Amino acid sequence: MEKSKILYLVIPCYNEQEVLPETAKQLLAKITSLISAKKISPKSRIVFVNDGSKDQTWNIIADLHEQNPIFQGVNLSRNKGHQNALLAGLMTVKSFCDMTISLDADLQDDINAIDEMVEKYDQGCEIVYGVRNARDTDTAFKKFTAEGFYKLMQFMGADIVFNHADYRLMSRKALDGLEQFEESNLFLRGIVPMIGYQTGEVYYARKERFAGESKYPLKKMLSFAWEGITSLTVKPIKMITFCGAMLFLISIIILIYSLIRHVTGATIQGWTSIMFSVWAIGGLQLLSIGIIGEYIGKVYLETKARPKYIIKEYLHDAD
Ligand code: UDP
Ligand code: MG
């Protein structure tokens, strides 16, 4: 049998002192059981990324590392947000492993799904999405806002996996692909599907946070959604162009209507021309803004310098 693969778990942590010791314990149990079942290599590691926490998080990570080198720590210079912390972790460990699984420090994402993710990797998947199939433990409000978030994102033209957060397996190949996206407005959930390759999904039930509190209150969630939309798609601009075109169409209808009124003499002087102008100018202005917007949209996509392609295989002779 071929050699078992090296797995690195990557966990961004921001003020997670309440949950870290328990999280470390559970992850260690999980990874040692996978190692003894020979599903992953003994070189596998658990990596905590400290995202500029203001509490004891980093000290706990350093202690864990000292007690058992299977735990590793990456300390960011300051708080940079979940997405950047995650990327920092993934890029730091990329060259030491065959695959990574990213998950939250609060273990709301069932760690038993890891087994299945690794199986999917062995079957050839480069990316495996963890997808929540139930939200029984979320409050009605969190459920409503979270699912509304995915619906809004999809409506706005972002290609994201429904009910998938950042619990996912990525192979080294997929991470190499991710590295080529140089944009600084990072919305991983939207970018990962752009990488391509064979992907799979694993379903799990989302649990309650067992300690500490959510670092994503409504305000952060809204700004996250806005960030996602404006950093992924130019659909809002297209909507302006569409509105402008519609208004202009309406102005034509108004023109016909006012001409009829004019001819039948049912108007006072000046009404016809003013009526038409108001609509036509409004429509034309909006349309022009939309067109300018389309060009800005192009500039925006150019500055992102996204990779034009990622090569999956190249069959060629040895030299
Ligand atoms: N997190 C982070 N930096 C931040 C905010 C959050 O690294 O600025 C981490 C946090 O420690 C956790 C993960 O991102 O591991 C998800 O946060 P949380 O569980 O609070 O979000 P929720 O599950 O409520 O959406
Ligand atoms: Mg959470």
Account of the protein in words:
With 319 residues, the protein is α/β, with parallel strands linked by helices. It has two domains: 7-232 and 308-315, Alpha-Beta Complex (Spore Coat Polysaccharide Biosynthesis Protein SpsA, Chain A), CATH 3.90.550.10; 235-304. It is 50% helix and 14% strand. It contains ten helices and seven strands. It has helices at residues 20-36, 57-67, 82-93, 113-122, 140-155, 172-179, 188-195, 218-232, 235-263, 271-304, and strands at 7-13, 45-50, 71-75, 99-102, 127-134, 164-171, 199-205. The chain has a seven-stranded mixed β-sheet with strand order 3-2-1-4-6-5-7, sandwiched between helices. α5 (140-155) packs parallel to α8 and α9 runs antiparallel to α10. The longest helix is centred in the C-terminal third of the chain and has 34 residues, at 271-304. The two termini are 29 Å apart. The structure holds uridine-5'-diphosphate and magnesium ion (MG). Magnesium ion is lined by residues 104, 106, 108, 209, 214.
